[in-house]
Amino acid sequence: MTDCLFCKIIAGEVPSTKVYENDKVYAFRDIAPQAPEHVVIVPKTHIACANEITAENSRAVADVFEAIPIIAKEVGVDKTGYRIVNNCGADAGQTVLHLHFHLLGGTVGGKMY
Ligand code: AMP
Ligand code: ZN
What is the side-by-side order of every strand in the sheet holding 37-43? Predict the structure, then answer.
């Protein structure tokens, strides 16, 4: 995807503060953090949003979730706890159309639902 911000971040064409990377997943600090620890986790394969997850590409979602415990430990919230958020579509406020999961930690806000 030539015009996708997160594809450009993965490719290193747009700078980011990397937290974690493997061959399937890239994780970086959110530019506008909403919690003391706010990491954006993306599959390296371009999937626009949760609506586009299929049996054929869902391995990318598992790859993200397998990376989450490693990333949580890396930023020091594995013991204290964290929230994983995915926004899909306009009503959820999705602003970047490349599937991503927010890891939000270090917060004292209680539950959001
Ligand atoms: P969403 O609103 O769920 O689509 O999440 C997109 C997130 O990407 C927002 O939290 C933005 O703050 C974040 N973001 C946008 N541009 C950048 C960037 N260049 N580097 C890091 N995070 C970004
Ligand atoms: Zn993309």
Answer: 18-21, 25-29, 37-43, 101-105, 82-85
Nearest CA to ligand 1 atom 13: 30
Residue 22 has pLDDT above 80, yes or no: yes
CA distance 104 to 33: 9
Taking the whole predicted model, whether its pTM rises above 0.90 is answered as yes
Write out pLDDT tens, residues 32-82.
999 999 999 999 999 999 999 999 999 999 999 999 999 999 999 999 999
Q: What is the DSSP letter of 50?
A: G
Distance 6 CA to ligand 2 centre (A): 5
